[in-house]
Amino acid sequence: MPIAKQENWFVWEYNPVNQFSVLYFGHIERCHDKVTILQVAYYLVANSRT
Predict the structure, then answer these.
(1) What are the angstrom distances between the C-alpha of 43 and each of 30, 37, 48?
(2) Does position 32 have pLDDT exceeding 80, yes or no?
(3) Most buried among 8, 12, 30, 34, using CB within 10 Å?
């Protein structure tokens, strides 16, 4: 569930103003599909509006 920026600790700590941020909170273990997570990260970086 999204958290409002005013209540998000990450925003207070790193101040990503006018940036699109994706955070993954959870465990990445042997049974998780790490390749897909990395592919999505690369896709988002390559297709970001800079």
Answers:
(1) 23, 10, 8
(2) no
(3) 8
